[in-house]
Amino acid sequence: MSGSTYLTSNFTGTGSSTGDKVTYSVWIKRTDPAGDTRSTVISGYDDNSNYMKIRFADDDKFHVYGLHSGSGNFNVYGNHECRDANAWYHLVFHIDTTHATESERVKIWFNNKSVSISGTMPSQNHPVYTLKSNDMEIGRNAQSDNEHFDGYMSHFHCCHGYLYAPSTFGSTDSVTGEWKINTNPSVSYGTKGWFIFKDNASVTDQSGNGNSFTAGGGGLTKSEDNPSNVFATCNSLVNTNSALDFTQGNNTITNSGQWLGTLSTHAMFKGKFYWEFKCTGNFMTGIAQLNSASVQTDNLSIANNGYSSQWSTGYEIINGGNKSTGGSQTSYGPSYSNGDLGMVAFDATNGTLWFGKNGTWSNSATQTEIENGTTGNAAYTGLTNSNGYVASMSTENSTLNFNFGNGFFGTTAVSSAGTNASNIGIFEYNVPAGFTALSTKGLNSF
């Protein structure tokens, strides 16, 4: 979900006048953390005296809020921040306003960890308007039609009348120790329950109840990015200036002024990686070597055509076709015009970098030599990987759309996917053999 996109329920009716209970389980990846804005996951609204919403508050903590004309309001905060723009979070909410014990009426889990909560619990039998109301929405505050959710959602379950543990929807990986998704949980959904976003962008209810949704305010895009394989994006937490705008799941950056830039969310210490970009106007993109400053600062200074000492060392291509490092440019390949598709192949193990355009590698390089590791026509060779590298990108009065494997340039899907032996990610052009997408599975394949 991005921008103004939200979902409205196709099943309507007044909210229950008595208490109820429900389990919500959803995997999400936020693209706007630390934005000092509220971001709604789900809400239900009858009127200004009767509504409920589950959202991220201004401080990036979970917030469950409700108001009922007959029993007053409640306001519960989960004392855990979600600020990682590179992570999928598994959130589980229990709401049981029928419970006689006040502390049992709202519970929250984050990646199977119980979250301590504070605030005012709902009174007993407070209506649960997110179950069914005149206006029940996902991704927007139905009360005021704002507070849109920006990011990804996957496997969103609503189990009406049942309280399931997080272990129903996930498990701990025996090798990595990470919390991972259970794609086929054994649950009951009750009469008002539903299940959407099962492995795709479909909002058709998969529970069997027929409680489906309709997308409004914009379209939904299926993403290869999922809880089992997290793809790199532009990093909204490394934002040089508020004028740099991140959209389309942080795969698009737009800048209406001076040179501004950011980095990718994934770092490369070894392995061979491929990604693509679509250009408009002035840009510089490639790789940058990590150092403590580039990781820790929120205010990178991008100068000298996108290069700054805070990036340590950058190796990039300019829209005019020159390659650039340390503020010094050298002729390398043809210029890029608006709408051209760029290609990047980086061998992080051996420190070799190639650039291309519209399916042809620059400087007379060929896919065969890239696959064989021949360095004669590469843009840069012999780069040390001791500190690791990230993808870098900067623009001036322009837009850059990146395809790290999701198969889209902004809202436009690739026209005809090329070959990809790794089977990780979808790209416009053929991925050199031995190279793969910059994703968690791609990183773990080396």
What would your notes on this structure say?
The protein is built from 3 helices and 29 strands. With 446 residues, it is mainly beta. It folds into 2 domains: 6-216, Sandwich (Jelly Rolls); 244-444, Sandwich (Jelly Rolls), CATH 2.60.120. The strands form 5 sheets. Strands 17, 18, 19, 20, 21, 22, 23, 24, 25, 26 and 27 form an 11-stranded antiparallel sheet that branches. Strands 10-6-5-4-3-11-1-16 form an 8-stranded antiparallel sheet, with no helix packed on it.
Number of helices: 3
Tell me, briefly, the overall form: elongated
Label the CATH architecture of the largest domain. Answer: Sandwich
Q: What is the CA-atom radius of gyration, in angstroms?
A: 24 Å
What is the domain total for the residues? 2
Using the coordinates shown, work out and report the CATH topology of the largest domain. Answer: Jelly Rolls
Mean pLDDT, as a whole number? 88
Tell me, what is the CATH class of the largest domain?
Mainly Beta
- How much helix, percentage-wise, in residues? under 10%
Largest sheet: 11 strands, antiparallel
Brief write-up:
The chain is mostly beta strands and 446 residues long.
Indicate the topology.
Elements: E1 6-9, E2 21-30, E3 39-47, E4 50-56, E5 61-68, E6 72-81, E7 89-96, E8 106-110, E9 113-114, E10 117-120, E11 135-138, E12 151-160, E13 170-172, E14 179-181, E15 194-196, E16 213-216, E17 244-247, E18 252-255, E19 260-268, E20 272-289, H1 292-296, E21 314-318, E22 323-325, E23 328-330, E24 341-347, E25 352-357, E26 360-361, H2 367-372, E27 389-403, E28 408-409, E29 412-413, H3 440-444
Antiparallel strand pairs: 1-11, 1-16, 2-7, 2-12, 3-4, 3-11, 4-5, 5-6, 6-10, 7-8, 8-9, 12-15, 13-14, 17-18, 18-27, 19-27, 20-21, 20-24, 20-27, 21-22, 22-23, 24-25, 25-26, 28-29
